[in-house]
Design goal:
about 180 residues, alpha+beta, two-stranded antiparallel ribbon, 4 helices, GIY-YIG nuclease family protein
């Protein structure tokens, strides 16, 4: 097992990421409404335990549950970062980091559909996961996200556990 040398909480903080709070802390946090990138981290590097059924909300009548065997195949041993996301700036409430992260958190309780990153909700310890974000005022959040995912792939050989997309390239997944 190799250590997540490039994408640890310490190194992300040095790059300007802030927050590092559980999803339950988002409603009372001061997440900016501007565009940027976000990460979901797991403090433990221990083996994961997967739920058989996802508590995430259905989206367009699709069940977000994935067989635990499929989740085990996607797991990235030695990585703290489980998901890298983006949020474009905008005037609507669901835009920007604040809106996007709150939408993501609600999906874990079954209240809203955030299809991307849905695998994290099938982790038995999803309530202990941390969320962090970084504004990208001089870079399109989509490019910042793709760059961060590419860096992760260079470190680990594949995308983060819950990233189903890698920039404009979609990872092929087995049908649930």
């Amino acid at each position: 097992m190799h250590a997540d040398t490039g994408l640890t909480q310490h190194n992300l903080e040095a790059r300007g990421f802030c927050g590092f709070i559980p999803f339950s802390g988002l409603p009372s946090s001061d997440v900016p409404a501007e565009g940027g990138v976000s990460v979901v981290l797991r403090s433990s590097l221990g083996p994961p335990r997967f739920l058989t059924t996802s508590p995430a909300g259905r989206r367009r009548q699709r069940d977000p549950s994935v067989p635990p065997e499929q989740l085990a195949l996607e797991w990235v041993e030695g990585a703290h970062v489980l998901y890298i996301g983006k949020a474009a700036a905008g005037e609507r409430a669901e835009h920007g980091l604040r809106g996007r992260l709150r939408q993501y958190a609600r999906s874990g309780t079954g209240s809203a559909g955030h299809w991307g990153g849905r695998y994290i909700w099938q982790l038995d310890d999803s309530s202990a996961l941390l969320v962090a974000w970084c504004l990208t005022p001089d870079l399109d959040p989509a490019h910042a996200e793709a760059d961060l995912i590419d860096e992760f792939v260079r470190l680990h050989g594949k995308p983060p556990f819950a990233n189903l997309r890698r920039g404009t390239r979609t990872r092929r997944l087995a049908a649930p």
